[in-house]
Design a protein that fits this description.
globular; homodimer; PyrdxlP-dep_Trfase (chains A, B); 15 helices; transferase (chains A, B); alanine-glyoxylate transaminase activity (chains A, B); Aspartate Aminotransferase, domain 2; about 45% helix; Aspartate Aminotransferase, domain 1; alpha/beta; PyrdxlP-dep_Trfase_major (chains A, B); seven-stranded mixed sheet; three-stranded antiparallel sheet; aminotransferase (chains A, B)
Chain lengths: ~375, ~375
């Protein structure tokens, strides 16, 4: 197998387009130079439509988790109370970050695979007027659930004065998001998902409401102090050394995103989701999420013991050069997840489904070759 | 001018070797895959000789500052006392990080351009037995001083029970460093200097003494919690998503470092320092640092008002495609700094000196063309 033909279909990191790789080969430049300053300010500006905001978007050298932590440490103090919506591993991460800082995290938990509904949140907030922030996960990567953040935001606004802080890491750039209009106060994402970049950058925007809290809040952190990033961006620079080569890549990935257009990108991801789900259903495998809350970026399947998902993944990788993801947390070894996000097209979905069918056959599962492919084709042919 | 022939001679980021750029073009892989796990563990292992340690080296997705903060937040608690050796902007940064966490930072300050001597430190520690950590900067990037960390470490050991925590960002990989033998407890560096990589990775190693403190210390941070990195490395992985493409680059830069050999790399940097200093002196310009404490990676020059260093830098950049650095902090606009670090050879120094001479002439400074070049040649010719 050609190592460079590896088919990476995990929910991040996602494949890097050749144009973006090429852009990252730009000779190194000084991070305090005029050239870099212009590049940095312009790329930050061009991220705004992806967030659906008029606010500045800050770019951090770090993993998505660094920006999740920024959302906590810049808004809350020890003993403050927060509600954390936990529908999987990344909701749980928000809760753990809160607890690390001595913040009281009330977990609104739903079974993994379910979404947190507006009704659940409204009821949960009823007796918690003291809560200063509500943390939500837009796409819960560990289950493939797209939580209804638009409706959740509305509930937060109606039922409390809390800030609404959202992890958009594994969907922003592939789903609709109107941060300002919906009333999201802090929104975070990472580079290695729908933005088609390597890992290493995190992004964050904050509402005017959030900035009032942030400016009044003495963040204990230095590297993650949002006020330093705001002050520096006003001077067209960064407080600490930025990840220069990734910013060159970001410029090119934004070119690609603007050429295709966000509405079209969102439709492409919905199509890939629908193809994947149709194929999985045609193969008789149980999807983990309801149609209504199915993420356009990742699909989770729980074979419920019919076969070993880890054996399936090994076969896909070893025999077909295709990589999909396994389960996280208590679902480790029990489910598999197919990423269809970023530099990925409908025909790529057909390829993965085809390899999936063959691998299922090879591990002795009950499957008829071509069934899933046909179902995916039927979805696709109506769109092209 | 060819944009891709930009000559970047600042003290970081430094130019990326084509081999390293090529390596970073490796197709993206999953960060939890066996392939990446092997790559990550092996590259971390190969960093040990650069640190001069048998301890594990941790790789963080972030700027150097994130790892400086790790050195603080994992070892100290609010109200603890620390001594911070401040010989320039980066010593000052250590002090500011301490203060952000409510740590009492006793600054042992020397004029910018001077080194902190063992005698000064010994006297300063005399009446401070309560100090829990001493923070030092190996190469102070803002002045080009190489502080005598080996001797400073000895003083810390003799005069106190404090941990000795060192910022090696702008020299590690280009100077001798024997972390274990000298008694450094935490040592930090970044990717964009002598390691010839883009910005975006930070590195940290800790002694057994330091680990006792770290394990007993409740770090308030999540992303910068060293215990999480230690636990994950034992499982051959990282706690949060690593910067995958930079790790592919690191593997190749380590190949280059091992092919040339650390002793030879150190000699090359000393030679480039000696050439640069000889040229600057031949041109009658005042060096900022004494020979004894001159860093092999960056040389600072203070024209003391004879001409405007910013005008010099503009001319170098605009007419000759050469970028050097200006001053930081109170030296902004008053000095210039030439980086000679990483992917840089003696002939590159000649080029920069030549462009420097012409630019000096072009801004009307009193200089005879060729004087500096000749002095640099004389140093070089005795070495090849």
């Amino acid at each position: 197998m050609f190592a460079d033909k590896l088919i990476l279909r995990i929910p991040g990191p996602t494949p890097i387009p050749p144009r973006v790789q090429q852009a990252m080969n730009h000779p190194m430049v000084g991070h305090r130079s005029g050239l870099f300053s212009n590049l940095f300010v312009k790329t930050a500006e061009r991220l705004k439509p992806i967030f659906g905001t008029e606010q500045d978007v800050y770019i951090i050298a770090g993993s998505g988790t660094s920006a999740l932590e920024m959302g906590v440490v810049n808004t809350l103090q020890p003993q403050d109370e927060a509600v954390v919506l936990v529908s999987g591993a990344f909701g749980e991460r928000f809760a753990k970050i809160c607890e690390r800082y001595g913040i009281i995290a009330h977990r609104l938990e739903v079974p993994w695979g379910d979404a947190v509904t507006p009704e659940l949140l409204a009821a949960y907030l009823q007796d918690k007027p003291q809560v200063k922030a509500v943390f939500a996960t837009y796409c819960e990567t560990s289950t493939g659930v797209l939580n209804p953040v638009r409706e959740l935001a509305q509930v937060v606004r109606e039922k409390s004065d809390a800030l609404f802080i959202v992890d958009g890491v594994s969907c922003l750039g592939a789903v609709e998001c109107q941060m300002d209009e919906w009333g999201i106060d802090i929104l975070v994402t990472g580079s290695q998902k729908a933005l088609m970049l390597p890992t290493g950058l995190a992004f964050l925007a904050a509402s005017e409401r959030a900035w009032k809290v942030i400016e009044a809040n003495q963040a204990p952190s230095f590297y993650l102090d949002l006020r330093a990033y705001r002050k520096s961006l006003a001077d067209r620079t960064t407080p600490y050394t930025p990840a220069v080569s990734l910013i060159f890549g970001l410029e090119e990935s934004l070119n690609m995103i603007e050429e295709e257009g966000l509405p079209q990108i969102i439709k492409r991801h919905e199509l890939m989701r629908d193809m994947t789900r149709a194929a999985i259903q045609a193969l008789g495998l149980p999807l983990m999420t309801a149609d209504r809350y199915a993420a356009p970026t990742v699909t989770s399947v729980n074979p419920q013991g019919a076969f070993d998902p880890e054996q399936l993944r090994k076969t896909l990788n070893g025999k077909h050069n295709v990589v999909i993801a396994g389960g996280q947390g208590h679902l480790k070894g029990k489910i598999f997840r197919i990423g269809h996000m970023g530099y990925c097209e409908p025909l790529d979905v057909i390829t993965v489904i085809s390899a999936l069918e063959m691998s299922l056959k090879q591990i002795g599962a009950d499957v008829e070759l071509g069934t899933g492919v046909k179902a995916a084709q039927e979805v696709l042919i109506n769109h092209v």
